[in-house]
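Hey, I was hoping to borrow your eyes for a little while. No rush at all, and the record is pasted right below.
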Amino acid sequence: MSPLKKEKLSKIRKQLDKLDDSLIEIIKIRTKLVKKVLALKERKNQIVDQKRIKIILKNIKNKSIKNNIDPKITNKIWKNMIYAYIDFERRNFNKKK
């Protein structure tokens, strides 16, 4: 790789790192909201709502297409995020206050 390309790569990676920092802040906010949702659930079987999951993934697909983003990428990201939060809710259900 040429020195010029290495420099460009370094700049792009710095932009990605900064963007990752922003995503961490967004995930922090999302987690707080999920905790509020969990506090309202009375039974563990209320954690997974397949109907809502399907709606979310359909909306993300439509928004991805509209914004010229590969919907396979966003589908994987959202599925992983949804199931990570389901796991979080299951682990924290009995601990809720």
Observations:
- Residues 3-95 form a domain with the Chorismate Mutase Domain, subunit A fold (CATH 1.20.59.10).
- The chain has a mean pLDDT of 95.
- Residues 18 and 32 are 22 Å apart (CA to CA).
- The first helix runs from residue 3 to 40.
